[in-house]
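All the exercises in this workshop are built on plain-text protein records. Sequence and backbone structure share a record, each on its own labelled line. The question running through the whole workshop is how a given chain folds. The record below serves as our worked example for the rest of this section.
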Amino acid sequence: MQSANKLYILLALAVYIASVAVYGLRWVIVLRRAGVRLRLRDAVEAYLAGILVNNITPSARAGGELMRIAYAYVKTGAAPAKLLNSVVFERISEAVPVVAIAVAALVEVLLSGGRARGLIIGVALMLAAIGLGVKYWDRLLEMASGRLGFSYDPGSEAALQRLLRDRRLLTVAAALGAAVWVMDIFRLYLEALAVGWRAPLGHFVTASFLYLIIGLVAVTPGGVGIVEGGLAATFIALGAEPKQALAITIIERLISYVIASVLGLVVTLISGAGRAWTLLKSRWRRTGFTPRLGA
């Protein structure tokens, strides 16, 4: 680690911050089409606060999404159904880039002559999750509303359908989601260069997809322990030396876990995210969904 190229690490950090900004921009665009005006700065802060919640609660990213909704609610006073619809729309729009990256990862492994059994299982699980999410999104809306403590409005289904029928919006959202995937792949590539591991770019496509799968199935807060072990094992399987794989994993978690959590904490302390967290905890308690976290 001490011999790692600091310039590449800083570039990887810059790419990570840029990816959060792109996510924020996508949400602003979707919200405006839904009739909610949220500043880009507030959207980025909401994402950072959501990352903090994801990193300290065993919620498989659900806690972070609810934090985003609560933050936007505090900032705009918009109808919770509109905010919830925007998040669900984002997740549906990500189906295209996720499937594309999964197929690309599978092709890369097959062409390189590697064993693809584990990757095929991961792709199958991801496609199944996407299919279930698209098929039962109305029930997911109702469940999420209950977690937030808001009454469920069946009319929100029609509002979400209107968003999904907007092909231009869907295309823009999917394109921005794909841009973030490219940034994530490039970030891993820069981190590998920082420790002197030069590998084909396709390897990092595979690593990025498996990173997503590992993060989704991790049951610990922020995936601590599980993500590190899985990511290091992934890089070793792709040809990195154990020391290199460990160093890449440390750099990645330093950026995406430690620094991102610190930024999220700062946002929570100095902006509306603090009020959003208080609101979220109070509603979670009323619905029996308070995370196992110090109040």
Summary: The chain has a mean pLDDT of 81. The first helix runs from residue 6 to 33. Residues 34 and 51 are 24 Å apart (CA to CA).
